[in-house]
Amino acid sequence: MERHIKAPLDREEIKTLKAGDYVYITGTIYTARDAAHKRMKDALDRGEKLPFDVKDNVIYYMGPSPAREGRPIGSAGPTTASRMDRYAPELLDLGLAGMIGKGKRTQEVRDAVVRNQAVYFAAVGGAGALLSQRIKEAEVIAYEDLGAEAIRKLRVENFPVIVVEDCEGNYLYETAILEYRKED
Fold first, then answer.
1. How far apart are alpha carbons 153 and 127 in whole angstroms?
2. What predicted TM-score, i.e. pTM, was given to this entire model?
3. pLDDT tens for residues 70-113?
4. Which SUPFAM superfamilies match (predicted)?
5. Which residues have C-beta within 8 Å of that of residue 159, sequence separation ≥ 6?
6. In which element (H, E) is residue 42 found?
7. Whole-angstrom distance, CA of residue 49 vs CA of residue 53
8. Is the peptide bond before 8 cis (omega within 30 degrees of 0)?
9. Are 153 and 141 in contact (CB under 8 A)?
10. For 86, which of 26, 31, 100, 101 is 20 to 30 Å away at the CA?
11. pLDDT at residue 181 above 80?
12. Closest by CA position to 61, among listed 41, 43, 87
C-alpha cells in the first residue's frame, strides 16, 4: 500500500502502517550516525538533554556528501542501521517514533519498536543522489565538528521509504522471504 505521512509522526497513524507499505514522508526529520549516537548516549548518561527532542520524531541514519552549489545537501543515502542498534532501544524508550536506515536490526531493537509502538523504515541504498532531491532544507543543529556525521535537521517532501518493521512486529525481511521463497 502507498501512504503519505507527516513528520513528526502521529502515534495513531503509525499504528496503521504495515510492513511492506511504501511511505512518503513530508516534514521534519533528523540525521544521526554512529558518532552522533555515541555523543547522545554519553549526554544521557551524564543526565543532560539531547540536542533535539526525540519524542515522535524520526532519525535518518545518514551522513551526506557535500552539497553542490544551490542545493541544501549532497548525496543522502542511508547508512547500515545495525551500527546504531546499541543506542536505538534507549532512544525509542524516550519517545523516538521512527528510524530510517538500511538492513536488518537486532532482536533488542525489534522488541523496542513493538514496545514503543514505533516504526523502522528502509530507504534504498545506492540512491543517495535521488533521495537528496526530496530534501528541501538541511541545517546542522549539533556536533558540527563531526562533519558528515553531525546532527542535521532536514525538511523533506515526499521522502520515499518502505516500512520494514511495523509497530506490531511484522518484519519485512522475514515475511518477504517466506512470501517469495520458491518451492522446488
1. 20
2. 0.94
3. 899 999 999 999 999 999 999 999 999 999 999 999 999 999 99
4. FumA C-terminal domain-like (SSF117457)
5. 24, 25, 26, 29, 123, 131, 134, 135
6. helix 34-45
7. 8
8. yes
9. yes
10. 26
11. no
12. 87
Contact 102, 122 (CB under 8 A): yes
Q: Which residue(s) pair with 60 in the sheet?
A: 31, 100
Three cell numbers written together for 134: 526530496
Q: How many residues does the chain have?
A: 184
pLDDT tens digits for range 43-72? 999 999 999 999 999 999 998 988 888 899
Which cell is 157 given?
517532501
H/E run at residue 91: helix 88-93
**pLDDT value of position 174:** 85
Q: What is the DSSP string of 97-160?
A: -EEEEBS---HHHHHHHHHTT-EEEE--TT-HHHHHTTEEEEEEEE-GGGGGGSEEEEEEEEEE
Q: Which of 164, 157, 117 is nearest to 137 (CA)?
A: 157
Q: State the burial class of residue 41 (Cβ atoms within 10 Å of its Cβ: 0-12, 13-18, 19+).
A: middle
The confidence score (pLDDT) of residue 178 equals 66
